[in-house]
């Protein structure tokens, strides 16, 4: 029972080198489920790239990563007074997003998050006077601004960053380094040209780890194949399937991320029409699965279980057999495979940052 992620290692790494070439000073982001690859593997690749700095999501992720990643770690979740934090090394950099949450950071390495049009968290212009008195006690690393991924109307991302830099100049703030997100290489070059004394560093995970889709693939093992009996229910819900298709049990269920969906922003008539069609199919219990056989996405015969899914496989071609591999189109950021296979196999000396066999993903 195995859901497998296969990586064409050299092709994947070639993409990493290309992104690093486009974005000098790149800061790889390794958070959550490790973008489907696991933190150990991403930290190993970050070490190979030689960036010297990686970003993680939480202090818990930083505490685990510091044991096997030799570089600095930027914790993206903002610091809060009185937080329960594990022991962190002096290679850790914390983010401050409010002048009211700076207690206990004297002598620590700190990045200040600026409020962007994303309106999530961050220092506002009105906060700058209150921030200045506490900054002198920090080992200040720079500013950071997290831009919205989809910008519709208004100023572009680079102009938003530039506006903040001009405002910080007026306040005579130190502008040695600014961390940014979701900017193109051309936008980054424009910022460096306008502000030659400031180093702009792109933080990214999706562009780096998921930007070469042909270098990675998910596959699922077929566990069983049967023909449904007319009039007989199946699964925990005892649903009665249409006669004709084969019932195929494959590895991969909700514990792997199969069948999980997040709310999505709809823009435009086409997006809304597709959403309505999807609602109609759902009302009829017709749910597309992420599994593909013979070039066609299969439907779920029943809601996915914890570790396996039951599919309806139609079509004129032969059905899969027990032991066959079925392709799976899964979201990397929510998927946890049972195993990761690298082709060609990574030599043992490279299998982990500190040597030895590569640990399993978190």
Brief characterization of the structure:
The chain has 362 residues and is α/β, with parallel strands linked by helices.
Give the helix tally: 8
SSE arrangement, N to C: EHEHEHEEEHEHEHEHEEHEEEEE
Q: What would the principal axes of the Cα set say about the shape?
A: elongated
Q: Bin the helical content.
A: 10-25%
Query: Could you give the count of β-strands?
Result: 16
Low-confidence stretches: 351-362
Rg computed from alpha carbons, rounded to a whole number of angstroms: 24 Å
Q: Helix/strand/pairing class, anyone?
A: alpha/beta
Output the strand order for the largest sheet: 2-9-8-7-6-5-4-3
Q: Report the average pLDDT across residues.
A: 87
Distance between the termini: 19 Å
Strand content: 15-25%
Summarize the structure in words.
With 362 residues, the protein is of the alpha/beta class. 23% of the residues lie in helices and 25% in strands. The chain is built from 8 helices and 16 strands. It has helices at residues 9-22, 39-49, 59-65, 128-135, 157-170, 185-194, 206-209, 269-283, and strands at 3-8, 27-28, 53-56, 72-78, 92-96, 109-114, 139-145, 177-180, 199-204, 216-226, 246-251, 288-293, 296-300, 308-313, 325-328, 339-343. It has an 8-stranded parallel sheet. A 6-stranded antiparallel β-barrel has the order 10-11-14-13-12-15. A hairpin with a 2-residue loop joins strand 12 (288-293) and strand 13. The protein is elongated and about 75 Å long. The chain starts with a strand and ends in a 19-residue tail after the last strand. The model is unreliable at 351-362 (pLDDT under 50).
